[in-house]
Amino acid sequence: MKPILPGAAIGVLGSGQLGRMFAIAARQMGYRVHTFSSETDTPTGQVADVEIAASYDDLDAVRRFAQAVQVVTFEFENVPAACVEAAAAFVPVRPGGAALHITQNRLREKTFLVSNGFPTTKFAAVHGVDDLNAAMEKVGYPAIMKTASSGYDGKGQAKVANLEDAVQAFHGCGGQEMIVEGFVDFELEFSMVMARGVDGQFVHWGAIQNRHKHHILDVSFAPARMGQASSARAIEVSRALADKLDLIGVLCIEFFLTRNGEILVNELAPRPHNSGHLTIDASRTSQFEQQLRAVCGLPLGSTEFVGAAAMANLLGDLWYAGEPNWPAACALPDVKLHLYGKIEPRPGRKMGHLTALAATAESAAQIVLLARENLQPVRKPS
Ligand SMILES: Nc1ncnc2c1ncn2[C@@H]1O[C@H](COP(=O)(O)OP(=O)(O)O)[C@@H](O)[C@H]1O
Ligand SMILES: [Mg+2]
Questions:
Q1: 265 with 254: CB under 8 angstroms?
Q2: pTM of the entire structure?
């Protein structure tokens, strides 16, 4: 298959920060970028060549978008299947519809994992309130309930301690299809970000450790603080999963490391991932450039790290007391600031991130947290 060469136009479904960082990588290598979503002046649109605002259900608009590009990828996995099919009638959509279909629904995803022998959390499906009792018996308490589709950053999730909580959580989510998972009292969380090329070439950045706050990623650092055996097993699972999905592009697998050293797959994202943002500053090839190379059929780049690194997310909450003190964070020489061009800093909304490089992951984490602390606006005495 002939590679798609610089100068070509690439279509991105979705228009958030992942599309923005992809578009920056693509433009650096001389590609053009068209983005499609329902909004304008988006994080991706601000740096793309063409920004199309239309509904994902407007299939004529999707067809026009696809006809103007050489390949379509996505940065948002909740794109309706019909939209992907409409685009795929004209150009390759990478990763393909199968990876997207499996990962759009947590029940489908977990069923896929179990039926292919990949280690994951105990789970049960809940289609109606009558399923709750049996589901809870299967996974035990405490449990985590999640909406089967369209949840992200901990949205549509609840930790439940008894049947009463579970019934309430089910109704609280509007009675839609849910998954119940056994609560994993993990040692730590980590992710594997990887890329697979058109010819099956496989690369990864090793285990990246993640810390969440209120179910939202807060800090990531690499390399993860875990034993060689668990990390080797995670790499083995990652390669097997990427092959099984016949993936072309970037995939992130979120894992739990249990207290007895076992690894469990938490969830999959068939696209660059928040935990991989540190690869922009810390690796020879970022996850976004790798996505570009993979979807264009180019050889993949080196994933070697130039140093240990840590990334801290900047949520809208940081704006509570006023505009963050950007110069104070920039004053630390090993810290890089990334902002996504979002206008409205809502609580919990990912507005940007900071990355720090250092000799060890621990010191990088300390520096990045200090830098974020320094962002707090100086309060004027009243
Ligand atoms: N079964 C579980 N046991 C323990 N913690 C969990 C479980 N499921 C989710 N969590 C916590 O919530 C976070 C977000 O959940 P996740 O399933 O990854 O959804 P999202 O799509 O919102 O990232 C996880 O990274 C983890 O910290
Ligand atoms: Mg997650």
A1: yes
A2: 0.96
